[in-house]
Write a structure and sequence with these properties.
Helix content: 25-40%
Pfam family, one: ETF
Strand order of the largest sheet: 9-8-7-10-6-1-4-5-11
Number of domains: 1
CATH architecture: 3-Layer(aba) Sandwich
Cofactor: FAD; AMP
CATH class: Alpha Beta
Order of helices and strands: EEEHEHEHEHEEEEHEH
Shape: globular
Subunit structure: Heterodimer of an alpha and a beta subunit.
Strand content: 25-35%
Structural class: alpha/beta
CATH topology: Rossmann fold
GO molecular function, one term: electron transfer activity
CATH superfamily: HUPs
Main location: mitochondrion
Number of helices: 6
Length: about 260
Amino acid sequence: MSGLRILVPVKRVIDYAVKPRVNRAQTAIETANVKHSMNPFDELSIEEAVRLRERKVPVEEIVAFTAGPAKAQDILRTAMAMGADRGIHVQIDESNNKDSSPAALEPLGVAKLLKKVVEEQKSNLVILGKQAIDDDAGQTGQMLAGLMGWAQATQASKVEIEGDTVTVTKEVDGGVEKVRAKLPMVITTDLRLNEPRYASLPNIMKAKKKPLEKRSLADFGDVDVAPRLRTVRVTEPPPRKGGVKVEDVDGMIAKLKELGAL
């Protein structure tokens, strides 16, 4: 087969170790002065793309892509420090987002934009996280595959490529399931796929010299990324109530009846 041209979409999200807080207006999660980092599932995607190359699979190029505010280029530099060859940043003006949230693009809009990028970059394999930890939508990969008319394998825990055939192992309730398809293909990654490497200082310095292309939505023509959902209100979940102790099974049944659970 010809060399793989891998596109890895990545997203800038609130760091997984930070507890999200609702803003005062109750319109979105507070993002000001909050630590952000690359979406953990996208770290797995970058790592897997680099490992394919290390396993001597013929990889022609690994391109990291993101759409977001100016600060999102930081995660592209991280992706390049991990092994991506170059980055593409489509800058999204946060001021256009009525909810004051960094997640201005909905999954369908992102999928439509990615379709344009895939066609422009002539990618034949897209590896992306199964979901982003800010909205937990888990839709972009599937929508992209549908728009492209490509095969897809979701929630990958193992990826094997031989020629133009890709075998993806995924965990299911009853054990594991294997999906086999021909390139081109979309793969979404799950936590058991690999353990992402830390970007070493020498690689971080090298990443500063790798090309990072800055683009705008207008560069991709009439991509419809208009939001179709409106956030009415965002609130904190109610405090969890403490449990109660019962003496025996009869007491438990009586309590469940009292609570209307039986």
